[in-house]
Amino acid sequence: MSSTPRVVVLVGSLRKESLNRRVALALPTLEAAPLQFEIAEIGNLPFYNQDLDGENAPAEWVAFRDRIKAADAVLFVTPEYNRSVPGVLKNAIDVASRPYGQNAFEGTPGAVISVSPGTVGGFGANHHLRQSLVFLNVSTMQQPEAYLGGAGGFFDADGNLSNDSTREFLAKFVQSFAEWIETNRKKKP
Prior knowledge:
Number of helices: 5
Number of strands: 6
Radius of gyration: 16 Å
Oligomer: single chain
Shape: globular
Largest sheet: 6 strands, parallel
Structural class: alpha/beta
Strand content: 5-15%
CATH superfamily: Flavodoxin domain
Order of helices and strands: EHEHEHEHEEH
Distance between the termini: 18 Å
CATH topology: Rossmann fold
Number of domains: 1
Helix content: 25-40%
């Protein structure tokens, strides 16, 4: 790799003490691969409305789209709400991929981590998100899959990742993702 790949991270939970945000913040501490992780805040994005799009699109939309376009890869870290992704994450995807024919995600390598305090680990959200990513032409890493169940026990009182097996798994995930980015980032227009 000629430079450290920039990975924009979209966290599907807005909660201050979000387990998903904690996982996203833990990734750079793993030092598993040379990746630069940057969380893109999505809670301030106005709801997508095609009537507002075009030459005078909201500034938040334009900045978000530009950030996605400039990234070498995108990582989604999401909880599961009602067997799907949270509305705020779906809105961010809609903002970045619209209007039709101007998809900011086009050809971007990506990966998905779903995080849940429950035992299933956000399986439904993970797979529902992957369906959308196929249409958006995001080259989504298939293995290793990342369903982090029981996530309430992964962190110490200060919010730091303290579970050794989770740390080891995430390090392997990050290493695989770095390799995936290297293989697929040449395809991005």
